[in-house]
């Protein structure tokens, strides 16, 4: 690339204006931004090449006195666009990449600039537009875009040629701070007034009034340069610092689980700070799957839940395993099959999963919403105080789309709102075991409390099996047999 020719073709600044900016302590890349050079490839060139091109451009214009000044603490960008700074950034990215081993295919580069660069750019441009004849009034090339041009290609190489793309599920975050100049934004009248107002607050963390967005809005309201703000800005003695972090969106695995063991809770069961039960369905699946993704932790999401003493049979209950900070996100189906085999082998007789595979945010979002629209079938052993007769059994078998009114069960009042919910018993079928016991199969709307439908919950569920039989009834065992049309 012929950089000098680029300046000839695109520069909106004269060589004299470029020289004036350099004399004030403006780095070469900020000079190019003010000159309306908007080619990202130009900013990716080394400082030596850029300075040489600007110097040649000045000499062609018979401008004397241009020198290759060392401007490490640029009065505008505070050093953000300086080569030594971005080399430190890249060194930190390289260290993290070698340490974490993410398998990113794309990455989003998110840069958080110190808010003071907005003020310094504003103050500098106000000065140059009054000091230099015909200085452009167009908004300069974006500072973030300039830095991205500098570091994105190298970061791509460090991440095994991952493509820099907006909206990627993997992000490289560059949070830049400059302590020496940080308090300057507090001299903007609007910011100063807001910050003084927070001193009267006595509770909670103070709002952030000097952040990037707040400073941008405050500058937009200025009609004149405040006397408290130095224009042009002063030179700096220090360079900025950056904190680099990697973030990955959650990775999702979906499947369906079957629970064969009574007494196994769906999630870890903690009561009054004390752990009850040795394990849970969540741990049976998540603890084995997590190492495959090399994640930091996981969350378990399901379409509804069964009680700890209830088995989940049939086609199983849909679940999502959400993996946080997965280093390995792109598992193929063979690896999901391995996870399924490992879970099933480790939990024989208690938990089994089927149809394990990669999932998406869309499936995750619809999982619980879909649970409320499903029909469920149950099988339970019911005790009747009275003798079961053909007439009483016929009453149960005759149930067809029976609407019941269920108040929140007493046993869950501590965690659910007290209210009455209409539910539907779509069908019922009895099989008498002896005079006082029967096998009852039910098809219900989602969210029906089957135990309470059997015994009535002290009159809080009506009608109920006990009221239909005309005697006390209770449930001995309960299994979920299927979720009709389960995902």
From TrEMBL:
Query: Any idea which UniProt keywords this protein has?
Result: Isomerase, tRNA processing
Annotated GO biological process: tRNA pseudouridine synthesis
Provide the Pus10-like C-terminal domain boundaries.
252-482
Q: What is its EC number?
A: 5.4.99.25
Q: Which family does it belong to?
A: Belongs to the pseudouridine synthase Pus10 family.
Q: Which intervals of the chain form a coiled coil?
A: none
What does the record give as the organism's lineage? Eukaryota, Sar, Stramenopiles, Oomycota, Peronosporomycetes
According to the UniProt record, what class of enzyme is this? isomerase
Question: A Pfam family matched by this chain, by name?
Answer: Pus10_N_euk
Q: Does the keyword Isomerase apply?
A: yes
Write down what this protein is called: tRNA pseudouridine(55) synthase
Single GO MF descriptor: tRNA pseudouridine(55) synthase activity
Q: Which residues form the Pus10 N-terminal eukaryotes domain?
A: 74-235
């Amino acid at each position: 690339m012929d950089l000098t020719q680029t300046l000839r073709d695109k520069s909106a600044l004269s060589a004299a204006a470029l020289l004036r900016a350099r004399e004030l302590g403006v780095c070469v890349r900020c000079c190019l931004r003010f000159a309306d050079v908007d080619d990202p490839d130009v900013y990716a060139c080394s400082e030596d090449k850029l300075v040489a091109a600007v110097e040649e451009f000045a000499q062609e214009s018979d401008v004397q006195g241009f020198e290759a000044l060392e401007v490490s603490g640029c009065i505008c960008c505070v050093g953000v666009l300086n080569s030594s700074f971005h080399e430190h950034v890249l060194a930190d990215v390289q260290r993290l990449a070698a340490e974490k081993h993410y398998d990113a295919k794309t990455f989003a580069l998110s840069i958080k600039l110190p808010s003071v660069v907005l003020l310094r750019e504003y103050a500098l441009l106000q000065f140059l537009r009054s000091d230099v004849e015909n200085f452009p009034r167009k908004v300069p090339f974006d500072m973030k875009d300039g830095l991205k041009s500098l570091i994105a290609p190298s970061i791509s190489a460090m991440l095994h040629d991952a493509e820099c793309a907006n909206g990627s599920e993997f992000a490289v975050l560059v949070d830049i701070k400059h302590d020496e100049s940080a308090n300057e934004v507090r001299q903007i009248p609007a910011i100063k007034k807001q910050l003084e107002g927070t001193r009267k607050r006595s509770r909670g963390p103070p709002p952030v009034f000097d952040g990037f967005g707040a400073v941008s809005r405050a500058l937009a309201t200025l009609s004149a340069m405040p006397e408290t703000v130095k224009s042009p800005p002063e030179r700096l003695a220090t360079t900025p610092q950056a904190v680099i972090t990697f973030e990955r969106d959650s990775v999702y695995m979906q499947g369906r689980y079957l629970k064969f063991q009574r007494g196994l809770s769906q999630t870890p069961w903690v009561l009054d700070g004390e752990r009850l039960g040795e394990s849970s369905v969540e741990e049976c699946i998540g603890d084995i799957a997590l190492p495959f993704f090399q994640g930091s932790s996981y969350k378990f999401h399901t379409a509804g839940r069964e009680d700890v003493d209830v088995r989940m049979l049939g086609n199983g209950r849909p679940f999502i395993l959400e993996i946080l900070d997965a280093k390995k996100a792109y598992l193929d189906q063979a690896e999901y099959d391995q996870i399924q085999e490992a879970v099933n082998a480790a939990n024989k007789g208690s938990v089994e999963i089927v149809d394990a595979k990669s999932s998406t945010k869309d499936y995750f979002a619809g999982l619980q919403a879909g649970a409320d629209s499903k029909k469920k079938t149950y099988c339970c052993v019911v005790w009747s105080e009275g003798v079961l007769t053909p007439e009483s059994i016929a009453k149960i078998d005759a149930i067809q789309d029976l609407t019941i009114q269920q108040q929140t069960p007493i046993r869950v009042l501590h965690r659910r709102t007290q209210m009455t919910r209409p539910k539907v018993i779509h069908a019922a079928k009895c099989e008498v075991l002896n005079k006082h016991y029967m096998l009852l199969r039910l098809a219900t709307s989602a969210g029906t409390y089957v135990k309470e439908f059997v015994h009535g919950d002290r009159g809080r569920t009506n009608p109920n099996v006990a009221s239909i039989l005309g005697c006390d009834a209770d449930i001995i065992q309960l299994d979920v047999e299927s979720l009709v049309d389960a995902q």
